[in-house]
From TrEMBL:
This is EF-hand domain-containing protein. Keywords: Calcium. InterPro entries: EF-hand-dom_pair, EF_Hand_1_Ca_BS, EF_hand_dom. The lineage of its organism: Eukaryota, Viridiplantae, Streptophyta, Embryophyta, Tracheophyta. It comes from the Eukaryota. Residues 15-50 form the EF-hand domain. The keyword Calcium applies.
């Protein structure tokens, strides 16, 4: 039995772990090495979430191991990225500029 797969050139590409890490790191506008709720919300808004505030709350809930209400970029970023990857965000023109900059 053979399987034949075709690739649709117009199919959206799901953001990779590295691309999401880069996007979240760029969101740390005050350079405190942590992401606040507002910084995480802005990322989810830019990713195209229709409920970015809820996504930010849940993302921080998944990632915030020490309970300070923020995501530490050194120790907690992977959990936030895993949460975001599970949502299946795809590359849009707006996002493409962020991940290639």
């Amino acid at each position: 039995m053979r399987f034949h797969f075709t690739v649709n050139k117009d199919a959206p590409l799901v953001l990779t772990e590295e691309q999401l890490k880069k996007i979240f790191k760029q969101a740390d506008v005050n350079n405190d090495n942590c992401l606040s709720w507002d910084e995480v919300r802005k990322v989810f808004d830019n990713l195209g979430s229709c409920i970015p505030g809820v996504r930010a709350h849940l993302g921080i809930w998944h990632a915030d191991a020490n309970g300070d209400g923020k995501v530490d970029l050194n120790t907690e970023l992977d959990d936030l990225v895993n949460y975001a990857r599970g949502l299946g965000f795809t590359i849009t023109n707006k996002i493409a500029k962020q991940v290639t900059a």
